[in-house]
Amino acid sequence: MKSPLALDSGRIRLNVRVQPGASREAVNGIELDAAGRAFLKVRVKQPPEGGKANRAVAKLLAKSWRLPASSIEVVAGHKDQRKVLEIDGGPDVAETLRKWLGALT
User: Fold this and answer.
1) What is d(CA 52, CA 1) in angstroms, rounded to the nearest whole number?
2) Does residue 98 contact residue 3 with C-beta atoms inside 8 Å?
3) N or C: which end of the chain has fewer CB within 10 A?
4) pLDDT (tens digit, 9 = 90+) per residue, 20-43?
5) Segments of the chain assigned E as strands
6) Is 40 exposed, middle or buried, given 0-12, 13-18 or 19+ CB atoms closer than 10 A?
7) Of 11, 25, 26, 35, the residue nearest 85 (C-alpha)
8) DSSP 79
9) For residues 28 and 2, is the Cβ–Cβ distance under 8 A?
C-alpha cells in the first residue's frame, strides 16, 4: 500500500484525513482517495472551529509518536478534512514514523 508519508527537501510530510467532532479520538489506518493518494485517517473530538481540530490532531499524533506537539504543523488544508502535516525531525524520526505507519496496515 502507498504511504501517506513523504520526505520533501529534508522535511517530513504526512497526508492526513481528519474527522472532527468524533465521539472518540483515534487513528484509523490508511486510506486511498479516488486519485490514489494515501491519507492517514484520524478522528478527533474537537470541532472544526478556530483551529481546534487541527491542534487536536497534532496533540494526538505527537502523543502517539512521543514527540512534542510543537514539532507538528499543519502546512496545507487548514480548513479542509484533508491536510498536509509537516513534522520536525531528521532521518531517525522519519524511520520511526515509517515503522509506526507500517504497523497500521
Assistant:
1) 31
2) yes
3) C
4) 999 999 999 999 999 999 999 999
5) 5-8, 11-19, 26-32, 38-43, 72-76, 82-87
6) buried
7) 11
8) T
9) no
Position 21, amino acid: G
pLDDT for 14: 96
Q: Which residues contact 15 (CB under 8 A, 6 or more apart)?
A: 4, 6, 37, 38, 39, 40, 82, 83, 84
The gap between the terminal CA atoms of the chain, to the nearest Å, is: 8
Which residue is it, cell 515509517?
Answer: 98
Average of per-residue pLDDT values in the chain: 93
State how far the Cα of 73 lies from the Cα of 35, in Å rounded to an integer.
24
Give the alpha-carbon dihedral of 8, 30, 46, 60, to 10 degrees. -70
User: Domains of the chain by range and CATH?
Assistant: 5-104 (3.30.1200.10)
With contact defined as beta carbons under 8 Å apart, do 88 and 65 qualify?
A: no
Q: Are 30 and 4 contacting, i.e. CB atoms less than 8 angstroms apart? A: yes
* DSSP letter, residue 77: -
